[in-house]
Amino acid sequence: MNRLCKDFGADSSTARLDPDRVAGWFTFVWGKASPQTFNVRLAAWRAACAYWREQQWLGGDPLVRLVARSVPRDESRALTRAQVDAVLGLDAALRERVLWQMLYETAARAEEVLMLNVPDLDTANRRAVVIRKGGARDVVVWQTGTARLLPRMLAGHHAGPLFLSDRKAKPSVALADVDLGTGRARLSYRRAAELFDEATAAVAGGPFTLHQLRHSALTHAAEDGASTPMLMKMSGHVSVRSLGKYVRPSAEALARWCAETDPAARLRR
């Protein structure tokens, strides 16, 4: 919408949004983007146009010439268990190790974990309150790996953001994202993603993304027999359909299951 205002003019009338002009502009701006990006931008446009029609600011459909693109299914986004072990065993800074371990063990979104403040933590019960996509408050739970590392990172840190950047905050940063004791800002998703990309470049199959830790955690939990309600609680999804792409068994799991259920193997045993 910011790009729309920039290119069409913030004071322009919606009458200028004729289908041919909009289709040409949209294709020029996002035509070379990935199908996922193209579709996300188009969905945002459709939501805006629907609202404008409800307000009777728009008569027709300026997006009638645009069609969502087909997104090829990606069956390989989840890391294998060996890859996860390699990533979590990397010799990295304590902050990164805590973040990566927590992302995998909680299966939470990276943005949800990075927005945690120290008072949100219940270290005794290995859980924390996060704000899910859409603003809902929910609880995530971690395991022994995070429980062992987290106290070392806290070390007397009782307030402010949990994950802090290496530099002091700029004056423009909101106070809610600044640790008043050190003056450092909350670690941004962009910087966290850059550090993870750099650290995992040497791992077989890497580099990886932070989202792949969440994807891997849900896939591995499904392979271990977690129920659908449990997976939905872990992921924060409210729709089973949204959960579906995360819980497809990996080729590794399929091979293990075939070996365990092989009739000839049972006869040999």
Short synopsis of the structure:
The chain is built from 13 helices and five strands. With 269 residues, it is mainly alpha-helical.
Question: Share of helix among residues?
Answer: 40-55%
Low-confidence stretches are: none
Level-1 CATH class name of the largest domain: Mainly Alpha
Average pLDDT across residues? Answer: 85
Q: In which order are the strands of the major sheet placed?
A: 1-2-3
Total of helices: 13
- The arrangement of helices and strands along the chain is HHHHHHEEEHEEHHHHHH
The global form is globular
- Let me know the number of strands: 5
Instruction: Tell me about the largest β-sheet.
Output: 3 strands, antiparallel
CATH topology group of the largest domain? hpI Integrase, Chain A
The count of domains is 2
Report the radius of gyration as a whole number of Å: 23 Å
Amount of beta strand: 5-15%
Q: By CATH's scheme, which homologous superfamily of the largest domain applies?
A: Intergrase catalytic core
Distance between the termini: 64 Å
Going by helix content, strand content and strand pairing, the class is mainly alpha
State the assembly state of the protein chains. single chain
CATH architecture of the largest domain: Orthogonal Bundle
Structure, explained:
The radius of gyration is 23 Å and the shape is globular. It has two domains: 2-54, no CATH class; 81-229, Intergrase catalytic core (hpI Integrase, Chain A), CATH 1.10.443.10. With 269 residues, the protein is mainly alpha-helical. The protein has helices at residues 2-8, 19-30, 35-54, 81-88, 94-106, 110-114, 144-154, 189-200, 210-223, 228-235, 240-243, 251-260, 263-268; strands spanning 121-122, 127-131, 137-141, 164-168, 184-186. The strands form two sheets. The protein has a three-stranded antiparallel β-sheet, with no helix packed on it. α5 (94-106) runs antiparallel to α7. The model has no long low-confidence stretch (mean pLDDT 85). The protein contains 13 helices and five strands.
